[in-house]
Amino acid sequence: MTEKALPARRRLDQALQLWHRALDAYSDADEFSIGINSLIQALRSVTWVLQKDLQHRDGFVLWYSAWQDRMRADAVLRWLVEARNRIEKEGDLELRSTARVSLIASWLPAPYDEFDVPPLLPPHAIAAVLAERDIPKEVRDTGVLKVERSWVAATLPDRELLEACAHVYKILDALLGEAETRYGPGPAASPDERARNLEGLIAAPAVRTAFLHLGTGELVSVGRGPAPALADPDQTVRDRYGDLFARPFPGASFEERCRSHHEIGRRMLAIDGHHQTIAILLRGGMRVGITALDIEDQQAKYLVMDELAEMVARNSADEVILSTEVWMAVQLPEGDAQAHKRAANREDRTEALVTHAVARSGDSLTLMTPFSRDGTRIVLGPVQSDPTFPLALQPILGVWKRG
Predict the structure, then answer these.
(1) Residue ranges in 73-111 assigned as alpha helix (H)
(2) Where are the chain's structural domains?
(3) CA-to-CA distance for 186 and 339, rounded, in angstroms?
(4) CA angle in degrees (0–180, nearest 5) for 232-254-371
(5) Looking at the predicted structure, is the pLDDT value of residue 214 above 90?
(6) N or C: where does the chain have the smaller number of CB atoms within 10 Å of the terminal CB?
(7) 302: Cβ contacts below 8 Å, ≥ 6 apart
(8) How far is CA 335 from CA 320, 332, 338, 339, 345, in A?
(9) DSSP run (H or E) holding 211
(10) pLDDT for 170-210, tens place per residue?
C-alpha cells in the first residue's frame, strides 16, 4: 500500500487483517466472537471514512449516491449495517457453531444435514464419527463425506459469517478502487496484490472443511494446480511445442473455441505421450482461468468438479472447456458379467482424448479422438462428436442456475 493511500483504503486493509485473525480463532468461541465483532465494525466504518475524506470533492456526492443505491440493494450489506448497530447498542451477536454434512456420491446436488456442534470439534473429527454409520456398500465404495464447520449469526442463518464479511470486503474493495481512480492518489495496491487478497478470502473455506474418502477412510484434498504451458509459455515450452499456444483462436464462436482447444490437446498428446486433465475458464470468449486437475479415482473426481464449479462462480466464467484422457469400452448386453464394470476396469478398454465444452447459454459440445500406442508413438484417430452431455459437468450447470 502506498503512503498516500486514501484513509478508507487503510481502514479496509485493517479489516482484512481482522478477517484473518477471526479465521485463526475459528475454534475458539470467545476469541471468534471478539474478532467477528471487531471485523464488522471495521467494515462498516470504511464508507464513513471515505465520505468524510472526499465529500467536498467535485462530483463526489453524485458519484457516491449511485454506489449507495447499489449497496442498499445488497442483502448482506444491509445485514452488516444492522449487525454493527446491534453490536454498538445491544452487545455481541448471537452466534451458532454448526456443521453441514454432505454425502457426495453422484453428480446431482448432494443431500445434506446441518446441526449444532461444539466449536472445539474439528471437521475431520466429525467426519470420522459419521463415517462409522451404516452406509450402503455401493455408496461407500465411491462416495465422499464432506463436513463444513461454520459460524452463523441468528440474524443471517443462511450465510457463514466470514464468507458474508468477505462478500462485503469485495464490494468495498471495488468501491475504493473506483474512488482511487477518480480522486487519487491512484491505486493503493497493484492488481496482483489485490487479487492475492481476494484469493485469500476465497480459499478460507478449506480451513474449516474436511473430505473423508469413504472407500479408504482417509482424509482427502482437492487436487488442482497451474497449467503453465497454456497460461504462460516460456522458452522451454516454446522449444517443445513451437507456436502451439501463441496463435489466437481461429474464430469467435463457441464451437470454434472448443475445436481449437481440442486440436491443441491432440498435438500435446502426440508430443508428450499423455495429456493431463486441463480446465479452461472463459468469459466473453477470453480466458479468465486455467488449471490442471489431479483426478485419481471417482471420489477425487467428485471433489475436483465441485471445486471447478466454484472456480467458475468466482471468475464469473460463462464457458468451460475441459480436456482429458479417458478409458472407453463397448457397451455389452445386460446379462454380460462385464456389463456394469467401469471402462477403466475392463481388459478390452481403449483410450481417447476428450474435450468437453459447456456454456452458460446452454450450448454444449463434446469432441473425442480415439488413439492407440505404437511403442512410444501416439497414433491419433479422427475427431468425433458426441451428442451426450457429460454428467461430470453437472455441478457447473448448478452454479449457473443459482445465478
Answers:
(1) 75-89
(2) 7-92+162-199, 222-402
(3) 65
(4) 70
(5) no
(6) C
(7) 104, 105, 107, 144
(8) 38, 8, 9, 7, 18
(9) strand 209-213
(10) 999 999 999 998 887 766 666 667 667 776 676 667 778 88
